Amino acid sequence: MSFLRASRSARAALARARRYSTAPSAGNGKSSNLPYYLLGAGVTGLATYIYIDRTAPAPAKPHISDKSALDPQNFLDFKLKKVEPYNHNTARFVFELPPDTASLLPVASCVVVKSAPDAATPLLDAKGKPVIRPYTPISPSDKAGELEFLVKRYDTGKMSKYFFDLQPGDKLSIKGPIPKFEFKVNQFEQVGMIAGGSGITPMYQILEHALQDPANKTRFTLIFANVAEKDILLKEHFDSLKTKYPQTFNVVYTLDQPSADWKGTVGYVNQELVTKHLPPPSLGEKAKIFVCGPPGQVAAVAGPKAGMKQGELSGILKQLGYTEEQVFKF
Question: Given a cut of 80, is residue 25 above it in pLDDT?
């Protein structure tokens, strides 16, 4: 029973008691204790009902195996369950996992994907080898039976276009988890995040993990750069997190091509924006800056990655005095 319903029942019982106690009594004119007996019984019954309702066990979560549905050493094929359009160039792709299993992906990690061996039109590079790309799922690690990706279609992205050619029932080969950064709650006093486009997914993974932990005291600030407002992925969710966790999370959106009524920040990520919103390099090991986005943006902000390796720190963050130990590029 909800608190509101309980309150209404209690008020109703009290009103009846008052009505009985103030009404003229028939018979010998002596007052009756019946209204108080009725009120006592009503309140006792109500309290018992509330107690039973509050102590009732919560619905049991589906049992899941303690072994991940994924394999970090081998590609496994998973069937596409459904595709849910998100905006003009992005969609949610949900893949089926075996019954009673989950991805159990640690934070922060990703998977790598390629076309299935039996695909009608396999995705190959110029040398005839499978195209393999990393993606960060957005479904909870313990989500039973499903693995979800938020994929943005890029004109020059071979794998992103391949995703959008898939139909429910088609398969995709997935391998993982691939550990990226072993994140621990309260590992840093402040965390700055710079993301662009679909590079938001590893940031989402970390924020979902940390902010809902009651023990978290780390202050997170996200700078999220996009072309236009319609391109901002998961904006409603980040706005909700900002409202729910005002002491530990803030988000700043910046657009290259804003509309006339846009009231937020305009332009590319620059030194001024970083200095204004992100933790300063003077915090040393107490601060961490995460960067993820299109290669051009990552290079301008923190220097290009060297394949799967971090590469030398350069760009805006280097100019502002951050060290390689303070910066991680997804």
Answer: no
How many whole angstroms separate alpha carbon 229 and alpha carbon 254? 9
Rounded Cα gap, residues 291 and 313, in angstroms: 11
Distance set, CA 129 to CA 79, 125, 126, 157, 200 (Å): 22, 5, 7, 16, 29
**Angle 233-205-90 from CA coordinates, rounded to 5°:** 25
Mean of pLDDT values over 95-119 = 96
DSSP letter at 139 equals: S
Tokens of 128: 């005839």
Phi, psi values for residue 278, rounded to 5°: -95, 160
Angle between helical axes of 235-244 and 201-211 (0-180°, round to 10): 30
Phi and psi for 93 in degrees, rounded to 5? -115, 115
CA 73 to chain centre: 26
Question: Predicted confidence band at 64 (pLDDT cuts at 50, 70, 90)?
Answer: confident
Give the separation between CA 39 and CA 33, rounded to whole angstroms: 10
Residues 103 and 147: beta-carbon distance below 8 Å:
yes
CA dist 89 to 159, 167, 171, 224, 269, Å? 14, 16, 21, 17, 22
Tokens of 53: 């309702």
Q: Partners of 196 in the beta sheet?
A: 225
Distance of CA 329 to the CA centre of its chain: 19
Locus of tokens 């933790």: 279
Q: Is the pLDDT of residue 37 over 50?
A: no
Tell me the average pLDDT of the chain.
87
Is residue 290 within 8 Å of residue 162, measured between CB atoms? no
Among candidates 321, 290, 310, 293, which has minimal Cα distance to 191?
A: 290
**pTM across the whole model:** 0.79
Residues linked to residue 219 through DSSP beta bridges, in sequence order: 190
CB 202 within 8 A of CB 291: no
CA–CA separation, 15 vs 20, rounded Å? 9
